[in-house]
Amino acid sequence: MEGMIRRSTEVLQAIAAIWLIFVALTIFAEVAFRNLGLFLGADQIVQNSVPAIVFLQVPFAIAAGTMLRTTLIFGLVKKRVRLGINFVSYVIGIALFIGIAVGGWTDMVRGWEIKEYQGIGAIEFPVYIIRTVIVFCSIIVVFIYLNLAFRAVTGTDSTPMAQD
After folding, report:
1. What is the pLDDT along the chain (164 residues), one digit of tens a residue?
2. For the chain, how many structural domains are there in total?
3. Is residue 121 in some structural domain?
4. Taking burial as the number of CB atoms within 10 A of a residue's CB, which of 15, 28, 48, 77 is the most buried?
5. The domain containing residue 106 runs over which residues?
6. Residue 159 domain flag
């Protein structure tokens, strides 16, 4: 299970990196060709790409144990309490990402039905793809948090400082 999670999050991370390079090249091209009167619609691409890139990177950050955390209290308590703190944070993460997935599901399905686009003029960006990425990655994060919660309960949590 651990290997499958790690591999899938690495694939999502790679997709995010490729997408980010595309966004950077689009911005460069828009600035470079602005004097020629060419408009590529970089603002639409950036506006819609940022949420997708973030959600593609979140599963990797959570699975790798590199999400932002403060160690002020965490470093002062015993292992059992740290595992408890982790378990509670994992349950909160599960609830949060279930909420994001459930809340975005209807809009995602509707977006695919109507082929929802945003923008006018030079470029129209397919928003339904972004909605799908957000829902899909939220579901993946729920499974990652479920795995982490199980590991916290069994005492095998391997996130930083959990076993110290």
Report:
1. 678 888 999 999 999 999 999 999 988 888 888 777 776 677 888 888 999 999 999 999 998 877 767 777 777 888 888 888 889 999 999 999 999 999 999 999 999 999 888 876 667 788 999 999 999 999 999 999 999 999 889 888 877 666 66
2. 1
3. yes
4. 48
5. 2-154
6. no
